[in-house]
Amino acid sequence: MIQVDSLHKHFGGFRAVDGASIRIETGSITGLIGPNGAGKSTLFNVIAGVLPPTSGRVTMDGEDITGLPPHELFHKGLLRTFQIAHEFSSMTVRENLMMVPASQSGETLWNAWFKRGRVAVEERALAQKADEVLDFLTIDHLSDEKAGNLSGGQKKLLELGRTMMVDAKIVFLDEVGAGVNRTLLNTIGDAIVRLNKERGYTFCLIEHDMDFIARLCDPVIVMAEGKVLAQGKADEIMQNEAVIEAYLGTGLKNKIKEGAQG
């Protein structure tokens, strides 16, 4: 689905992404891991059109999408969430979801004044879809709550819900587990797996929680210093000496050795 070839993103003399090449297969849940400063979020931002690349190429289903702005990629089904959730805090959870679909009739003054019937029909359909999404995510009890009152994990679920309000093909999730308690993280993980299995979503996610990565992701791609260091199954990655030294640390290395000896 997504092919990234020799991608570079430089900020002055700093090479945030330095010749990275990755492939995200249709129907996969691909994990992207690496130490802070490895270039993961920058890579996401370039793929998703938030930042222009210095050089390199990104294709989606064979179509060159390099440098396309986010709104164009949105219409192609490529969505990206952020480490810090971007909700409309003064609106309800349901209203946040209803804001997502583009080209709504009520967005124009003419329709708002003279085609109120059409606008009302659309709004009822959107409200129904939003309620179905909230039920799927098991947060339907929060539908009338102000989004600003949600916990960090609930906001991450709301972000995931936004992707369900449109025909998403691939969703890039940036640190979905950051600041989320274990119970809600499991709920988010369950939703990702269900969307993947039942609705055919393709995911690529940045995450530091290796248990979460191991549960959901195949393959796992490791970045370090702007480059792709390794790729493989989670258990292979956790045994990879170069990955352990660059990212996972000697603590995990010793833990792995202890487990092998036990």
Automatic annotation (TrEMBL):
Alphabetic keyword roster: ATP-binding, Nucleotide-binding, Transport
Organism: Rhodovulum adriaticum (Rhodopseudomonas adriatica)
Protein name: Amino acid/amide ABC transporter ATP-binding protein 1 (HAAT family)
Family matches, as InterPro entries: AAA+_ATPase, ABC_AA/LPS_Transport, ABC_transporter-like_ATP-bd, ABC_transporter-like_CS, BCA_ABC_TP_C, P-loop_NTPase
GO cellular component, one term: plasma membrane
UniProt keyword annotation of ATP-binding present: yes
TM annotation in the entry: none
Chain ranges of the ABC transporter domain: 2-250
Entry GO MF terms: ATP binding; ATP hydrolysis activity
